Fold these 2 entries.
Entry 1:
Amino acid sequence: MPTYNLKINGQDHAVDATAETPLLWALRDHLDLVGTKYGCGIGQCGACTVHVDGNATRSCQLQVSQLDGKSITTIEGLSNDGTHPVQQAWKAVDVPQCGYCQAGQIMTASAFLAKYPNPSEEDIKNAMQGNICRCAAYNRIQKAVAVAAEKMV
Amino acid sequence: MSTLVSIKFSRRAFLRTSSLAGGGMLIGFNLFTACKPKVEMPVDISKLNFNDFNAFIKIADNGMVTIFSPNPEIGQGVKTSMPMIIAEELDVPWDNVYVQQGILDTKNYTRQIAGGSQSIRFGWDPLRQTGATARQMLVNAAAARWGVDPAECEAKQGIITNAKGETLGYGDVVNDAATLEVPENVVLKDPKEYSLIGQDITNVDIDKIITGKPLFGLDYKEEGMVYASVLRPPSFGKVLDTFDDSEARAMPGVIDVIRIGQKARELLGKEEQNWTVKLSDSDKVVVIAKTTWEAIQGKKAIQATWTEGTPLESTDFQDKRLLGLLDGKVFTTLRKDGNVAKAFEQADKVLERTYESPFLPHNCMEPMNFFANVTEDRIHLVGPVQTPADAAATVAEMLGRDVADVHLEMTRMGGGFGRRLYGDFVYEAAEIANAIKKPVKMVSTREDDMTTGVYRPAIKYRIKASIKNGEITGYHLKEAAINDNMYGLIPNFFPAGTLENYQVDVAKYDSNITTGAWRAPYTNFLSFAEQSFLDELAELMDKDPVQMRLDLLQKVKGTTDERIEYSPQRLEDVIHLVVEKSGYRNPKPGVFQGFCAYYCHNTHVAEVADVVIENNTPVVKKITVAVDCGIVVNPLGARNQIEGGIVDGVGHAMYANFMFKDGAPESNNYDRYRLIRMNEAPKVETFFVENTLSPTGLGEPALPPAGAAVSIALKKATGNRIYKQPFINNMMAKEVIG
């Protein structure tokens, strides 16, 4: 089986896997980074969102063979101790219900706010509509993104 | 309605205490039933037999408190709110409290269940009693040390103070307290004294959730663990014949391919646990691999043949069958007051409408999964299940083992919605582990989850009412459902009790499609049918729909009918509150408002939906909701449940559809099954009726009225009544969209 070198959260990791293994499963099963969640496997729900060179990307749709030289950030590496403004906003607003989709929501929101620091309500809704929350905590997710935007300015 | 309800406990059976070898005090308590009278507490917490109790408080000699939360956490917030109730009566600063998930007791207790919005309702008294008893023991220990009467001492925020103003911390006296008798007749706080209950408390797992720590069943790992992907029949009605696994076996990471199902099927006909789902009569093919991905890929490579065991149903067939039941004459009558037929004969006007709903999958974001390791010593099970006791008992029976061998750990659940009441995935994991003699995690894919579910069945209602001299004189509700009908007190919900001639009849047919509870079973669709009907009836009578409800409620006040569980006064209170807060009497121009009021799961709720027309399309903008759930334990968590329940209710009413063709679901993932997303979610504004009545649960009751309120607002906005879900297929807003 081939070995792929992945740069994740600033560290190099060697993964022995077939070329088409999705990044999602390499993270979860090979590297024990289980914060990135499996939800649908077809890029529809956003639970598996990570940053690839700063862009919010569905890790279920990326193969380990496509990531040479890319810098990957997962929820575990977004901050050292949960202090990223988006994570803090999630806590201040008390967003989660079951909590399962929230890592993906936070990764989408943090990549979005890094590019669009001053979003309108409509901007937030459009940016976040790719992430499903089955508990439907959408009111709070939306509010938390707005709170984080204020902190990040 | 009384104020605080209290249940008497025999404290000796209910509570046990012991001092801990490392310092501190341990209090074990049986939360829901105390049926094991003699249990010894250990002096070393590592020797604690978790099966003897289902919840604990540990008070360390530094004053820190650990509370083990007994019930499974599915996102309904009980891991935060149940320990809050203990901490209130114990009177400790919340910052000094650490909450841990308690473990399952498979033997003695009856309600370690997440379901029916009942955790808080049933936990309220025993949790308060436990906290208060512990507080009294600490006070008694301090009083003994001072040589004073305990009545002269006061405990607050972890500090005990005597009449002279001297103080001792809980940690200072905890080792003495552990040796004292468990006191009788402790005094519970008056709600006016609450300093924690009623405060906004953040989810206790928040730091782990936002940093991606392992919390869920899918995150659980053990050394040497392998992964299993299960190939189940592609259609309801088909059974496995043969399979060719040669290609799968040659694939990377694949360790083994096995055939299972026999063990689980032997359970059929045996004594069933409450939450045992109807098991498939087919065998299944299981691919065991080193990683989840390799197991899933291996499964795709299995070439299986299937035979038709029972008829393959399609949606057309189901629709015809259900309508046939409604047209037919064979019903079970669940409530009958007066004579509806006579009322219809003598009526000035009669209104009859039929309401139709599709099947719904649960779609928990965390797909079904479970860890199992079956050895000679024990059966170790870890994962997300709403009914851990039944799952453990069923696994023990399936494998011919003593239930005491089963050690089940509950993980946080990535959603439940009723799906995880049924333990089929636990039995599968255990059967696989038993066969391969390795620790294994069974993981369903989204496609597995959606196509081999335990669905909310398609249901149809037909409602007929008569009007005479401007009054409703008769009301006849008929239900046609699949596999099961409405149960419990549902036939006695509003408007039962308000009308002289009232009847509820149900009929069903048995299908091979597995069905079960889905968040707010039956009422999740019944509310839409009945509340839409009442709105149309009000229109026909030229009455204000709010006043119509209030007039009906007058007629049930003071009823002696014990089946009437809802309170007319509390329903009236939420109606008045929602009318005031939503601006229902003076809607803004261009805003179309739909009103409804509903009672289910012991909670009274009224909602008003605001619909506006944007780009020639009706858009649900806002839902205003008034809730009477008694004392609100944790308003922050309570509002979250209500907001989520409403948006969930709107989403499924608007968009959800799930059809079958020849026994196979036509949707298998989110590209062909539409769940509501943020850009479609209305804003929810929540208002609570303030009172000091015992609290009720909030996981479900805000959901059922949401679809009803939206359908009524859509009628005002578009001119068309909706009788069928999903609304998106049935809006027919011709005047608007043109």
Entry 2:
Amino acid sequence: MEKDEAMIELINVSKSFTLHNQGSAVIPVMKGASLRVKPGECVALTGASGAGKSTLMRVIYGNYLAASGQVLVGELDVARAEPREILTLRRETLGYVSQFLRVVPRVPTLEVVAEPLLAVGADKQAALAKASGLLRRLNIPERLWTLSPTTFSGGEQQRVNIARGFARDYPAILLDEPTASLDARNRETVLSLIEEAKGRGAAIVGIFHDVEARERVCDREINVSEFTPGMAA
Amino acid sequence: MTPLLQVKGIEKRYGARIGCMDVSFYLYPGEVMGIVGESGSGKSTLLNCMAGHLEPDAGQVIFDTRADGPVDTVTMSEPERRMLSRTDWAFVHQHARDGLRMSVSAGGNIGERLMAVGDRHYGDIRHKAIDWLGRVEIDEARVDDRPTAFSGGMQQRLQIARNLVTGPRLVFMDEPTGGLDVSVQARLLDLLRGLVREMGLSAIIVTHDLAVVRLLADRLMVMKGGHVVEAGLTDQVLDDPQHAYTQLLVSSVLQV
């Protein structure tokens, strides 16, 4: 990929929800959303709560269906792709650190973190070694690694989620409040992980309420209020 | 990539009543697809049509066989289809007793399927049976016990072992966690997910439990009145449902 080519590009994307069981009310939530993120660049989504930051992120991940426009990640238009193409994209290209950890009960933390590597056929020992390194950096005590993270505290789950999100060197990454509920030491580790990812050329889109963190790792800000119908100034 | 299964225009009627209608989709190797819908939506009818238990009134179920490539299993001969269901296909019933022989030992239940594909060496068969009991987390000391002496969760795990021992490529599952305690369900889900990953299985899972499909299925089909009303990536269908019925289904789930 050329340096000035976008890794993530949205062209005139709109999104609305139709509530069939509430009088078929149509709620437009996004209109004319366009953005470009190049490799090595980190872009922050800003805007008031409810402006559609998470919605935009979910549209990029293919979790929400765009109503119109193009959602390009690498070569793929997520807005029109088949499920299996999106699954491949998520496995190989696009990482996502959400705010919530969703795992199969009983699977040990170490395997939860190594899973993105195992899913692309990485060597099991190498995958577990990478996962151990991340858990150690994020200060998850080793005695917890064999337990399922379902019983962990909110902060611990968040760190397991981050470790999992950074287990693979994805070329494109989505981060939803990665430093929320972290103490200073762990926050520093997460910011370093983001800087390292940028250093190796990852294109990142993030939501950061933590202003200092945003100013340190993000190159640009995009105010999603511009894309919110009825909210634009 | 050649799809493992191509379902084209499947239709099944019970007299004037529609069982399922106009169902078409491709399933690729390694994919797990969930089919959800309320009782009577046609999901079990569809599953049974695909697995060769029911003859559809119209449509094709094309399976990519190892020897001859894609073949329509609806029109293939009965012996060929039976061979397929013993080798490349597996069917996990909701009620384990429908998929097990209750009067035969646990080891015998697993061994029987091996013998059906030509294994003859008693020592090998017993060894494989014990290995599979371990993989589905049943103590090998129970190898000579009959399934009647097992709990519901153990019976279901034994049924899974019996089905997977021959290394199938496609597994049909009809409400595999139905009727089990929640804690037993979690264990079974974890086990199934691990096996699907390790063996590179493709699977079609019929269930009414949305939590089960969220954890197990990559893709989801929603059925109502015999028709597919919505299909797509599992998390997309559950988090951003487009059809009125799917919205109702998703919003009806009780939050824990």
